[in-house]
TrEMBL record:
Record's protein name: Fe2OG dioxygenase domain-containing protein
GO MF, one example: L-ascorbic acid binding
Start and end residues of each Fe2OG dioxygenase domain: 180-289
PANTHER family: OXOGLUTARATE/IRON-DEPENDENT DIOXYGENASE (PTHR47991)
Organism lineage: Eukaryota, Viridiplantae, Streptophyta, Embryophyta, Tracheophyta
Amino acid sequence: MGNIDPAFVQSTEHRPKSKVVEVNEIPVIDLSESRDESLVVSEIGKACEKWGFFQVINHGIPSELGKEVEIEAKKFFGRDLEEKRKVRRDEFNAMGYHDGEHTKNVRDWKEVFDYLVEDNAQVPSSYEPHDKDLRTLTNQWPQHSVDFRETMEEYSREVEKLAHRLLGLILSSLGLAADKFHGCFKNQLSMVRLNYYPPCPFPDLALGVGRHKDSSALTVLAQDDVGGLQVKRKSDGEWIPVKPCPDAFIINVGDIVQVWSNDKYESVEHRVVVNTTKERFSVPFFFFPAHHVTVKPCEELVNEQNPARFREYNYGKFFANRNRSDFKKRDVENIQIQHFRILD
Ligand SMILES: O=C(O)CCC(=O)C(=O)O
Ligand SMILES: [Fe+2]
């Protein structure tokens, strides 16, 4: 079995327990068009408040498309490292293949491939507040297959529509106009990530992804039937597995919705555990706005009794700041919305 590279080892308090409670608690919401919209809105509002996570079924995305994504992803990750590294991410281009990601400075047991939903998106050149320079992020596609690119592009177009619909439902549940932030996603930085978690001989010491919150507005995640995602239950801090549900997407509130809602809906911590025998695939779609967007609590939700709990921040600078840590293990914590908090 050999020894584990210490870079992967979680500190004792963050290691997964070998026995987890098998509960089926994460709400499942039926998005069929025939359902009464106000009922769907109220179910989504409750799920966002209680869990920050829910699953959706009858969402309109054909299951064949999800299967094709999985087939293409499997083919890609099954190729030689040398091949995969031809589309490797680097400090200048954050899109492509990567096998050395760290979450909270511990290495994740996974390989990833990232691509933008809108290719050639503009981002700030640096995280320095006064530097107004922009640069362009460009997708890198593997040369071995045209199907890979076509499948991934079709998938992101479909999921983008679902993300807009879900954001509208979430905003309605807050009493806001469903299209209030539609314009923020023109020239979006949204990204799809293909996650591949190889079997791991040390599932008690390492994690597929360490505990974290997503910096998106929301995330639309597809997972295969292996399982491994765990969510921190708000009521008691217990790690709860999200049981795979065929053809469902897992939706989670991201940091931006937390700020927009002024803490009414929280972006909840989650992580991925690995296992000794089965590889696992998952595909998150991170719904990120354009670089110029200013994120702040919605005026409609703020008043004297409930003042703004966050200072505003520029999304592009936040994104650029996060990207700093992708290639180097850094000793300081990643930027978080907590750094903009003015009230608890
Ligand atoms: O693999 C999963 O189920 C979740 C991955 C995740 O949380 C992420 O990539 O941000
Ligand atoms: Fe995540």
